[in-house]
Amino acid sequence: MPAMIRILFAMMCLTSAASAQISASLQLNKRQYVAGEPLVATITITNHAGRELVFHGDGRRDWLDFHVRDNRGKPVNQRRAESFGAMRIAAGQSLQRQVDLSQRYMLHEQGNFSVGAAIRTLGGDNTVNVTTNRVIFTLNPGRVYWSQKVGIPGRRDQTREFRVLQFSGNQRAQLYAQIVDDRTGMPMRTFNLGDVLSIRKPSVTVDKNQNMHVMFISTPTMWVHYIIDLDGEVVNRDIHRRGPQGDPRLMTLSDGSVRVSNSIPYDPEAAAAARAELRNISDRPDIVFE
Predict the structure, then answer these.
(1) SS3 of 6, please?
(2) What's the CA gap between 101 and 66, in Å, rounded?
(3) Among 137, 146, 227, 268, which residue has the fewest nearby CB atoms (within 10 Å)?
């Protein structure tokens, strides 16, 4: 066997042995997303080396790298690159790292995509790449149910757009809130508000403080009310039941504030405590008088 072939063969064996020292897999929290919402990938790494392993970058490249591609195999551009820091795994243990891919890659357009990851292990002069499985996912634009552009207090000529989107994923109708930066046209934040029933139309409005109010029926007896600010943060979320004069509804007062009228506020914690008390009573033994 020529010397060069022996060297290449030895390097292949070394790489294979080092790769066998760890195993890695990738999972997504679901397969269908509304474009712009958090897209959480979970990397699971198991250490089979028989000794502690430390994963870290070398100043030029990080130890963990994702490869996101569209349905034509073209790489998706990064939004920003951030270090994953170091990770230490004891012998025989498995650790997980969760990464929101929507914060790292330009995942705002509809289409089919796939993602895999590579883990780089550094040992002496040897660098070994261990790859995970690839996972296919779909981005959907959702259907715009309601939208409104609003100004940003204290920032002249700057606006944002509130949107409420409808999306049917996994055979369930859901509502999403989305906040769009008008300067870039890019969603700043998109997130799931919950399942919605089609028996009533959602109600949406904006109050005097430029907060969006969304109210929708989530079960036959429960309405959910969200208050969301210009940064896409949830100011408040509460639950209401039907009042004596019909369904709950959003009411805008003369001063521009918004409140829920004709409702009975529902406290899940109080309801759970009441159910627990009923169970405790039912568990008591019967008393028989003779």
Answers:
(1) helix
(2) 9
(3) 268
The count of other CB atoms within 10 Å of the CB of residue 277 is 10
Average the pLDDT over 117-133 and give the result.
74
What are the pLDDT digits (tens) for 137-156?
A: 999 999 999 999 999 988 88
Cβ atoms of 48 and 89 closer than 8 Å: no
From the CB of residue 101, how many other CB atoms can be counted at a distance below 10 Å? 20
Q: Is 9 helix (H, G, I), strand (E, B) or coil?
A: helix
Residues 6+ apart with CB under 8 A from 37: 102, 176, 190, 191, 192
**Alpha-carbon span 158 to 152, nearest angstrom:** 6
Token reading at 158: 């700057």
Q: Which residue, 278, 189, 266, 271, is CA-closest to 234? A: 189
Domain check: are 105 and 147 in the same one? no
The pairing of beta strand 87-89 with beta strand 203-206: unpaired
0.90 exceeded by the pTM? no
Tell whether 185 and 266 lie within a shared domain.
yes
| 126: containing domain | 3-139
Contact assessment for residue 149 and residue 161, using Cβ atoms and an 8 Å cutoff: yes
Q: Which residue type occupies 160?
A: R
d(CA 32, CA 85): 29
- 170/91 same-domain check: no
Reduce the DSSP state of residue 275 to 3 states and report it: helix
Three-class secondary structure of residue 48 per DSSP: coil
Residue carrying the six token digits 């007062």: 253
CA-based R_g, the chain, Å: 26
Domain count, the chain: 2
